[in-house]
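re: ur question from yesterday

yeah so i grabbed the chain u mentioned. its 121 aa long if i counted rite. heres the sequnce exactly as i have it in my notes:
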Amino acid sequence: MDQRTRRSPARFFAPLALILVLVAFLAIVSGSGNGGGSTATDQSSTSTSRSTTPATKKKAAKTKTTKKAATDTASKTYTVQVGDTLGGIADKTGVPLDRIEALNPNVDPHAMTTGQEIKLK
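ran it thru and got these structure tokens back, copy pasting raw so excuse formatting
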């Protein structure tokens, strides 16, 4: 018989077997990626699904107002980071550059150091 007319089934099954092995490998690797943390995830979802009591709601409201007050206090100054310029600080904070310069007359824009506090309001 002629070799060209007779085809081996291995030519068809070999690529399929390779694909199946790769899919199985990826399934195993992605399944073990959580590091056994499924128990912690289950516990946290159980604890968050509990109903909230009025006392819990009051505590949450107090926490939100406390965070807002802390944000207002923190937004009055800016801590200089590596590579910051006065123009960059003005862009990040939304405070006009001339306002920053007026509030900080002793700040040399060319000699700012990391950690230096800049007044914004």
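noticed a couple things. The longest strand covers residues 77-79. also The CA atoms of residues 3 and 70 lie 82 Å apart.
anyway ttyl
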